[in-house]
Amino acid sequence: MTRGPWHVAVLMGGWSAERPVSLMSGEGVAKALESRGHKVTRIDMDRNVAARLAEAKADVVFNALHGVPGEDGTVQGMMDLMGLTYTHSGLATSVIAIDKQLTKQALVPHGIPMPDGHIVDSASLFEADPLPRPYVVKPVNEGSSVGVAIVTQDGNYGSPIGLDVEGPWQHFDQLLAEPYIRGRELTTAVLGDEALLVTELRPKSGFYDFDAKYTDGMTEHVCPAEIPNEIGEACKAIALRAHQLLGCKGASRSDFRWDDTQGVDGLYLLEVNTQPGMTPLSLVPEQAAKLGIDYAELVERIVEDALTQKQGAKGAGHG
């Protein structure tokens, strides 16, 4: 596959909680492609997105959306119906990966270590704890740590949790409840069929929530992570296996918790992000840069992966 020049429609924005991050990702991608001589059409997604994509007549769509409906299969299904080539994962993969419970059902039977947990009605939290404290509750299908709450023994959210107390139970009818895993926050990017590096995320205060992810200076990124070699290798192996089992395309990012008192047995995959951020603070560009892949090269590789998949599909159709 030659490196263009291509006409790329960069799809960004939308109306999820992650809109500002998506706009940053999309603008970074657009500028990188333009710097390499490619034609770019920027599309801030609204309800007329199908008409605007059809009008653009691009060679490929760079999907820089985050959250619903850009990451949950909705937009992917629309682009499939339109016959468009697009970056990152397809419809089925996106549907499964955005849903933390479906992800467990897909991965745990294959030996991928993930925390136990179950879906609870948010209203039930006002009556009783679903698990022994400390535990975590989070939306089933949001990314970027949106709406994650850690309920501790001393009851930082009240005991029991109240409807008048700010938390995800005010915004979501159902939540996923999981045991809290003490220890360290690790993440591994996968690009194509290669796991990159392991980054440890050290929030300056609290935990690695949405604000810590996207506010400069709130989280220290240690890359490569200062961890035993066997833990690093396990992270990369699990991330690559999860990427393959789910059928991810382009880039993905796997997030882990590691209880460092338990060795490899303390390593748990939390989720797989099929459309990881491409902002200046994002982890995939950072890991790629450490391996000598600059930002523009990373963007081109993701686009090239999508175009190569298209060529492969055409070849299979004529076989």
Q: Could you explain the architecture of this structure?
A:
With 319 residues, the chain is an alpha+beta fold. The chain has 9 helices and 12 strands. A 5-stranded antiparallel beta sheet has the order 10-9-8-11-12. It has a 4-stranded antiparallel beta sheet with strand order 4-7-5-6, with no helix packed on it. Helix 1 links the parallel strand 1 and strand 2. Helix 1 (19-35) packs across helix 9 (295-317) and helix 4 (91-98) packs across helix 5 (100-107). The longest helix is centred in the C-terminal third of the chain and has 23 residues, at 295-317. It is globular and about 55 Å long. The two termini are 20 Å apart. The relative contact order is 0.15. Residues 207-214 have low confidence and may be disordered.
Number of helices: 9
The arrangement of helices and strands along the chain is EHEHEHHHEEEEEEHEHEEHH
Instruction: Provide mean pLDDT, rounded.
Output: 89
Structural category is alpha+beta
Distance between the termini: 20 Å
Order of strands, main sheet, comes to 10-9-8-11-12
Number of strands: 12
- Percent of residues in β-strands: 15-25%
Q: How many strands, which pairing sense, and closed or not: the largest β-sheet?
A: 5 strands, antiparallel
- Approximately how much helix is present in the residues? 25-40%
The low-pLDDT segments are 207-214
- Backbone CA Rg: 20 Å
Regarding quaternary structure, what we see is single chain
Shape: globular
